[in-house]
UniProtKB/TrEMBL annotation:
Stated name of the protein: Small ribosomal subunit protein uS9
Gene name, Swiss-Prot/TrEMBL: rpsI
GO-annotated cellular components: cytosolic small ribosomal subunit
PANTHER family in alphabetical order: RIBOSOMAL PROTEIN S9 (PTHR21569), SMALL RIBOSOMAL SUBUNIT PROTEIN US9M (PTHR21569:SF1)
Record keywords: Ribonucleoprotein, Ribosomal protein
Domain of life the protein comes from: Bacteria
Family that this chain belongs to: Belongs to the universal ribosomal protein uS9 family.
GO terms classed as biological process: translation
Organism this protein belongs to: Eiseniibacteriota bacterium
Amino acid sequence: MSDFMGTGRRKTSIARVRLKQGTGKRIVNGRDLDQYFSRLALSRIALQPLISSNVADKFDLVASVRGGGLTGQAGAICLGAARALLRVDPSLRGPLGKEGLLTRDARMKERKKYGQAAARKRFQFSKR
């Protein structure tokens, strides 16, 4: 059986996720997933598609992720793993879709505007 690839994006993070049949090893950028994401919540976010489809111990996950922070990277791995699972078994589209794991989170940082302190914050107003 070959590898199943999926690409995930979140904020400015991009993850390339490869699933292959194995024993449940999880490697992100050459390190163990739990070691890469120091917070347990981020590890759970990244593995949510595998856990919800009950295949966490049947596939090895190897992810290459770059850009953004750890939260965005975990979300990118989540989307990439969900897309790779669809290539493994297209019948998972319903359950994964119901949990919102196939939807790309389009929220990005709003750009700073000229004449303002930040994206929406204004400089202090003075009448004089």
